[in-house]
Design a protein that fits this description.
The chain is an alpha+beta fold. Helix content is 73%, strand content 11%.
Length: 459
């Protein structure tokens, strides 16, 4: 059991097979045939799963031994024949010999001495082959040892010859070394003179490199100053957008709270419910606005993280439709959709949820009461496209161009005569492009708008 746990922990599949098989052998020696059979079958199944033929052959043999002892000869013969077929195919001589031996014993028990003799002869034949092979291997090994010994003796003789030659060479080298030392001293003197020349030359090169480094540092400093100015401009722009975007919803939120607190005693239940709905809607819009502002600020400052995964785009659409349906019902806007079939895309789930929420909220915000919104999804080649059509007030050409180019924030009136900055659309376009998609807007003032988002499909 302990060895099985270790093998499983280190993912050693063959070790697991051996551990299970050994457990079966223990049960077999304890004469617990039921447990032994269960373990041998488990070892057989594991061996087949990993293609471990040695484990398969061992499991077949052990099962046959248990069935033989239980005198279930037919089951034992069936298992031995299955294992024998594999052993013959793979030419596993040891397993073939073992199978023939136990088959001979079984047929002897059954008084079928002809079959018993036939399998005993096969067993003896293979055993003799294996003995002969082992003997041949031993002879070959002794011959190899003799050849190595002979080679070692020859090497010793050659070594003595080499030592004699080395002594002769050393005598000649003594004369050569004197000439080499004199020549080396001359070379050292030349090297010292040359190194002094190189040091002077290197000092000039280092001075030039230092001057270049100073110039590069100045250029880097100028670049950092430009980035700092750009960052400061982005922060000013961000603060301006936040102050403008938050002022309007917070103003209405404050007015609704003041009205409720001052007139609650004279208002009927219908007016209170309507005011609370408006208050809830204002809070929801403010929350979505804050979410958009946070995401937009992250994208502007380069802090957005892109984490793609496989998602069902229609599931995300249904989830966001459910979240804003009460707002659409409040304005009596009908939402029609055909988004039942799953369409899988590779995208950042949180980014695409923000895009869908922004487009749906935008469609409701800019669509008058009793209007209509239609949602479609389909696959075009290697892309999935979802579209949101509305019967809203639409956009003029300048507004449409500013969104398509993402040139900045442009304030525009909604269907309820409030003002929208277009921040949600600009943010949506940025998120779609981060996800390797395409953001398309088609609009005509007074008719409505169509927003199309194309994302990479998971085929």
């Amino acid at each position: 059991n302990h060895s099985y746990e270790i093998c499983e922990d280190i993912e050693y599949a063959k070790g697991c097979v051996k551990s299970v098989h050994n457990q079966g052998i223990v049960y077999q020696k304890r004469l617990d045939d039921a447990q032994a059979i269960a373990k041998f079958k488990e070892a057989l199944l594991l061996s087949r799963q990993i293609g471990y033929q040695k484990g398969v052959l061992g499991a077949y043999y052990s099962l046959a031994v248990v069935y033989k002892r239980a005198k279930e000869f037919e089951r034992a013969i069936q298992l031995l024949n299955e294992g024998l077929a594999i052993a013959i195919k793979e030419n596993v001589r040891k397993s073939m010999s073992d199978y023939y031996a136990i088959l001979s014993e079984i047929y002897a028990f059954k008084n079928n001495y002809k079959k018993a003799l036939e399998f005993y002869k096969l067993h003896t034949h293979i055993s003799n082959e294996m003995v002969n092979l082992e003997s041949n291997n031993k002879v070959a090994e002794l011959q190899a040892q003799y050849r190595v010994s002979l080679q070692n003796r020859e090497n010793e003789v050659l070594k003595m010859d080499n030592q004699i030659k080395e002594l002769k060479i050393k005598r000649k080298n003594h004369y050569i070394w004197f000439a080499v030392i004199v020549l080396s001293l001359l070379i050292v003197l030349v090297i010292i003179i040359y190194k002094r020349f190189l040091l002077k030359k290197q000092a000039n090169i280092d001075l030039q490199d230092l001057n270049k480094s100073i110039v590069l540092k100045n250029e880097e400093l100028d670049l950092l100053n430009k980035r700092l100015k750009k960052s400061k401009d982005q922060q000013l722009k961000l603060f301006g957008v936040i102050s403008h975007e938050l002022r309007n919803p917070l103003y209405w939120f404050r007015n609704l709270v003041q009205m409720l607190s001052s007139r609650i005693d004279i208002m009927d239940k219908e007016m209170v419910a309507k005011s609370l709905n408006s208050l809830n809607e204002s809070a929801t819009n403010t929350f979505h606005l804050m979410d958009n502002l946070l995401n937009w600020s992250k994208s502007q400052l380069g802090n957005m993280r892109y984490n793609p995964e496989v998602v069902d785009i229609n599931a995300l659409i249904r989830e966001n439709v459910a979240l804003i349906s009460h707002y659409a019902e409040f304005k009596q806007i009908k939402i029609m959709s055909s988004i039942e079939i799953a369409f899988w895309v590779k995208a950042d789930k949180d980014m695409i949820k923000t895009v869908i929420r922004n487009l749906l909220s935008n469609a409701i915000k800019f669509t008058p009461d009793n209007g209509q919104i239609e949602i479609k999804t389909n696959q075009r080649g290697k892309s999935v496209v979802f579209e949101i059509h509305d019967t809203g007030i639409g956009m003029d050409e300048n507004t449409l161009n500013s969104i398509q180019s993402a040139s900045g924030i442009k304030y525009m009136p909604t269907a309820d005569k409030e003002t929208g900055s277009g921040l949600g659309l600009v943010l949506s376009k940025e998120f779609v492009e981060i996800n390797q998609g395409e953001f398309i807007v088609e609009s005509k003032q007074g008719v409505g708008s169509v927003f199309k988002v194309k994302l990479p499909a998971m085929c």
